[in-house]
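Database export, one record per block. Field names are fixed; values are copied verbatim from the stored entry.
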Amino acid sequence: MMKNRKVFLLSSLFFLSLMIPMFTPSAQAGITSLEGGGTMYLSCQSGNDCSLTPVSMGEGKFSGQSFGSTLQPETLSFEFDAAPAQQHLAILPEQIDSLIVDFRHQTETGGLLRPAVDFRLILGESVTDWSFESEFVPTSSEYQPYTLEDELLDSGASRVLWKDDQIRLIMVVTLDRPGTWELNLRGPSKIEMELPWSTDAEAADVDEPSSTTQPIVSSFDSGHRGALVGDDWDCWTFPVEEHEVMTLIVDWEAVPIELEQPHEVPNLVTESGRLSPQPEVVTKLIDDDLRIIYRWRNLPVNDYNLCFRGAPDRFQAYSWSGLFGYESSGPVVSDDFSSESFYPSGTVLLGDESESYALNEQGVSVLLLSIVMFGVFLLVAFRPTTSYPLRFGIFLPGVIFLFVGGIIHPLWSIADEVQYEDEITIDELIDMRLQQLWDVTADGVPDRTLVEYTGATWGMLAGERLQLRLSIERAVPLQDNRWQLIVPEFEKLRLDEVIFSQVAKGSQNSATQGVQDDHSVRFVLLAGRSLVLDFLMLEALLVVDELPSSSVFHIDTVMVGTRSAGSFNTPVWSTRPEGISEKSWIGIQGDLFPKQITISLCDCDLDLLDVNFQPSQGFDLNDVPQDKWGLKNADGILPYGAALMWLGMLLGIVASTLELRRYQKAQGMARSFHPIRENQWT
């Protein structure tokens, strides 16, 4: 009977996990409405009635006479407000695609003038100004309207555009010449700007009017959906049946970080106001979607109120459902987690690891041998009896080659293999990245700062310099004759160990210990995702053209800003080494990004972390950039130093052999004359 209950419970939970996302409302981009596209046209019904509209409308042209002069310029002001007004919750982009305004001024002398114009674009709390200086248009040139392309927006402290927020373009024209001006509308003048994210908050908030005093009557095991808009309370009331285990599954729709609601444990209270004990909690970050599973045991049968509480200036839609069951190995117990969570090393390996070539640091044995042979060759070469052709024709080149390739080159290599003063190691990079993520996930840190640092590749912002020393044990040959480097630290990197160590270190200065607080939960999920993606990119870029002569590599590169990968909610790889082109970087981003990545955290008796990873199937050799980006082998002063050493050694041995034979031949000749000299004396 118990076995059947376990099967029923697991089957029901699986069904619920498939059913809940069906209630998630969709979101599309638009500036004034979901269907508004990304273009706002400058439209006017009259000189004092102008607006920004999603379609071209109104008068086609406005014109007038100017009497301004250099001493007494005339000013024209136009204000364009969005019509209809902003209806949806949206996130502003980093830049506008274009701003085009066709304003012309024909002076009395017959010349065409582009007068000075100031633009101010107001998007909620974002206020951005642009200015154009006046200039004459040569008669031989075609007139060009005022045009801005890919201009950054000054978002200030917030990129959020709420319903009914102001959207306005102010245009101020300064006319310092008498003449006739005209503003061409109905198409030529427009703003193009695609919003990366928007949603209809009112449509998603279907649970209203719910509150602590007016909960929605429902049943616990049915599907529900709603949205937390600001600091409101969403509450339901339902009876709790006889059970051993009561499980609540909440799916939070992915939203930009600036809007994400705090995911506190919901209040579960009886009608008399008695608060239920804290449940077991499993938090799953599945790509960008967040699933939280709560589990209570043996609650008294009663009517309960379940409430979710929001925070000011936040929005997030959700769906939830529950299940009454009996004790079993469900999805929120530690048995479902592995005791160790390793980084998926080798996921981006493009060659056969069984054919790998072992690398070693520059040893002193070759250096000592070269020094000894250098001394021997010098001793032999500069003996008084050594012939000059042999000394200067073979010995001298050999000694020089041996000195450069066997002594200078190894000494340079050994010096190049040491860690430079400003360099860090992989372990130090991990520690720095985790400390960085711990700091930016703390309460009170601006959301833009959090987005900026979490999206930065290896935690390096644009303009920062990465100096990293790598100790590589093996190189794997690739089909295009290149070599891929294997980082030994990645093969044994336990994500759970390093992440929980940072939690323990960071919690020493906090009143809350462990990973139960919101800050720690957010950090653990984000750190697991960031480390995996950071090191996937690093492994993919560790490809060199030739077989390395040393196991030590240095990375020295300045990072620059680039287009990020992933979603707008959680961007990644938003900085790149300056040596890699934008095109190459975007190419590797698209094919390297995982098919799915799931980070699971269990606040059980033992804090447990799982990382489930489905790599992309499209990553291959064609995606690895050919650009030189700052990865350098500690290979000494010459590219072929070892070959030069052996050439010098060979020349020295050949010269020594020839000299020895010449010496032996001379001795033989001397002995052949020795008896004759004895007879002469006798």
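Remark 1: The first strand starts at residue 39 and ends at 46.
Remark 2: The chain has eleven helices and 37 strands.
End of record.
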